[in-house]
Amino acid sequence: MENKMMMPACYSVMTEDEMTYTSGGDAGTAYAVGWVIGTTISIANMVWGIGKSREWIQKNKKGKSVTELAASGIDAFANYLNKSVGNAVVGVYTAINLAGWWPVTAVAWVTA
To answer: Taking a C-beta distance cutoff of 8 angstroms, is the pair 97, 49 a contact?
Structure first.
């Protein structure tokens, strides 16, 4: 048996730079998928955080001034963070997320 490479009857030789398009994906696709996943998590976390904080405000606002409500909210948040490492990670992420979306958060809290 001979070790000879047989080519089909019709073929085109591709240059090295054309091979880029045949590789089947690149870092841009991975970045886009990561961006979509991260954005989805961020929005879901924001909705959850606003919902939980509105629920807490509605339950605790009766008979309190704004400063008293804020002080007790900070205490409740600190207690939540101290329960576990998981709570601390979620709490810090949620706080950063809600601060980043502060106009939405402010409207949600004022209308609670």
So the answer is: yes
